[in-house]
Design goal:
about 0% strand; two-stranded antiparallel ribbon; golgi apparatus; 2 domains; binds zinc ion; Post-GPI attachment to proteins factor 3; elongated; about 350 residues; mainly alpha; 2 strands; Rhopdopsin 7-helix transmembrane proteins; hydrolase activity, acting on ester bonds; GPI-anchor biosynthesis
Length: about 350
């Protein structure tokens, strides 16, 4: 079972590596699309549709970068969006062909100005589910389970899970915001908070599965992961945002922690290890959705949105495992104390 699982994980990593390197964006390489965006930047119009906040003389800024700094961020985003929709309509009418990616993303139809409504809804559901999970964990540890003499919880990993809860909620918040509209700043915040979360949850996976409780051992694990994550984020934000490389880093950290939990689930006699297994196997399978990356159905629901949907029930099971773990460890420690 473990061997088969390892084989699937290796397949997933190699697939994502390939996809990451290809980084398909055939749509924005189309000369007609490029001309459309260039004209929109100069005139503030795409066909009949005009954006008053984009109107400025072409002498103000002819270089892309300057234009981007001078004008509101959503002007660039709107030019790209309307050119993309026009181009996709033309392509469908003339060639009847499948949609193309633009700047690394599928063409979505906006709903009330929201670029990817399905992904926004599922991100918010994930946020709510994590809040529920974290809150119930907080109540369990601080009010339901017995406390030590100094009013502190017996469970040694409580503070690690509290920070984890905050980081997941932060990450889903930025995910929802960045799926609302294609703006580079939001995208960077989304990517960065995902990397921070993945790095941190990798640390938690190592600390909990190896049962590391003393500070020295915890620092030994935390320091290298933290250094790696910080370097990656600085590189992505201040040097070059590379989608392919970011994808590889994220998949690597995600697969590594799934692997750690899988091995822990295999060797431990934890009463709730089936929950761990369920999350690991379903989480691994749901990553296939992320890698399949099919275009949005009717312009609304794509593989990415469905991937966000699958993590909603998995989050529920995950926090339920964390609560069980707190209760299990507390009972063990109480037994030992007696
Ligand atoms: Zn997303």
């Amino acid at each position: 079972m473990l061997r088969r699982f390892l084989a699937i994980l290796i397949l997933v990593v190699s697939l994502s590596w390939n996809l990451g390197v290809i980084d398909a964006s055939a749509g924005d390489e189309d000369p007609r699309y490029r001309v459309c965006v260039k004209e929109c930047k100069e005139t503030g119009c795409v066909g009949e549709t005009c954006f008053p906040y984009c109107k400025f003389s072409s002498n103000d800024a002819t270089i892309d970068g300057t234009w981007f700094i001078l004008e509101p961020l959503y002007c660039q985003s709107d030019c790209c969006y309307h050119c993309m929709i026009d181009r996709e309509k033309e392509r469908e009418a003339l060639l009847g062909s499948a949609p193309l990616k633009y700047h690394g993303k599928w063409p979505f139809k906006r709903v009330y100005g929201i670029q990817e409504p399905a992904s926004v809804i599922f991100s918010l559901l994930n946020l709510a589910m994590n809040f529920h999970g974290w809150l119930s964990f907080f109540i369990l540890v601080n009010y339901k389970l017995p406390l030590k003499g100094d009013k502190k919880a017996y469970y040694e990993f409580a503070s690690l899970w509290h920070i984890y809860g905050l980081l997941t909620m932060n990450s889903w918040l930025w995910s929802a915001v960045s799926h609302c509209r294609d703006v580079e700043l939001m995208e960077k915040l989304d990517y960065s908070s995902t990397v921070v979360l993945l790095g941190y949850s990798l640390i938690v996976a190592i600390l909990r599965s190896c049962n590391l409780r003393d500070d020295a051992a915890r620092v030994m694990v935390t320091a290298p992961v933290l250094a790696f994550v910080t370097t990656h984020i600085m590189f992505q934000n201040f040097y070059k945002l590379n989608y392919g490389w970011n994808m590889i880093v994220c998949v690597f950290m995600a697969v590594l922690q799934l692997l750690i939990w899988a091995i822990f689930g295999r060797v431990t006699r934890h009463p709730s290890r089936w929950k761990l297994w369920l999350v690991v196997v379903a989480g691994g399978l749901s990553m296939l959705l992320k890698i399949c990356d099919f275009p949005p159905y009717e312009g609304y629901v794509d593989a990415h949105a469905l991937w966000h949907a699958t993590t909603v029930p998995l989050t529920y099971i995950w926090w339920s495992f964390v609560r069980d773990d707190a209760a299990f460890r507390t009972m063990n420690l109480l037994k030992k104390a007696k």
